[in-house]
Amino acid sequence: YRVLKCELYMTGVFRRITAPGNISFTRNDSTTYVSANITRVDAPTSVVVERHSYEPHLIAHGEGAACGVIPMRWTVRFKHLNRVGGTLSLDLGSISLVEYPNMIKLYHRPVEGVGGFTQINATYSAATKQLTTAELLSGEYMLAYKECFPPLLVTPLDGVVEVDTVQTLTWTAAVGSGEY
Fold first, then answer.
1. The 3-state secondary structure of 8-59, one letter per residue
2. What is the pTM of this model?
3. What is the mean pLDDT of the chain?
């Protein structure tokens, strides 16, 4: 018999941390869209970051309920989190499902699939298109918009009176508003 391992709907990357620096969680042609800026290493440890291409199971909110959940989730598992310090960053510029990166929020729960998600402190940089946490945390992460908003008309412009008889209407994307 032969057993083959196949990852479906997931990219997982293992890294050993021995010194401060930037760590990318990318492997060959697969990426988790996550990087870490390790600022302190008291003793070597390891970390596994996984990106799953579907939204979390059993979504519950401890505080700060979310509206439009991006169908993607991440798990971060440090072997010894107390040995390192730093931040995690998500490359929102590479995640096509994020339409409004300046409005997206990051949610976390300490144990994968258990308990409620809470919104955590994260800062978005329009220059780098990175969403960066204030600290390292093990557990499960998801991206979501805090508020729902309906689609808005982009073209033709509101109030325009002279419009072609054959006109294409263009709308912004709806977030958490159901189907239109």
1. CCEEEEEEEECCCEEEEEEECCEEEEEEEEEEEECCCEEEEEEEECCCCCCC
2. 0.78
3. 85
